[in-house]
Design brief:
Radius of gyration: 19 Å
Order of helices and strands: HHHH
Number of domains: 1
Number of strands: 0
Helix content: 55-70%
Largest sheet: none
Distance between the termini: 44 Å
Structural class: mainly alpha
Length: 85
Amino acid sequence: MALNDPDASWVAILAVIPFFSPYLMPARMLLSPPGIGEVLLSLVLLALTVAGALAIASRIYAAGVLLYGQRVGLRSFWRATRVSR
């Protein structure tokens, strides 16, 4: 649907949101040139989201390594994620 009207306001908004930007922004760039600010905003938000996801994933992994072999409750897992900094 977005490819039928690449200049629609909802397509412009979704093209900046990190989950949709890798798919919608290149399509928008091919069909109708968006502003350079939109492209840069999309790239910056995507990079920040990837960095945040990596930070969260590394905390979860470190807590899982600390608690390996134990029966883990939510409270002890939360403590382990805070300790593994």
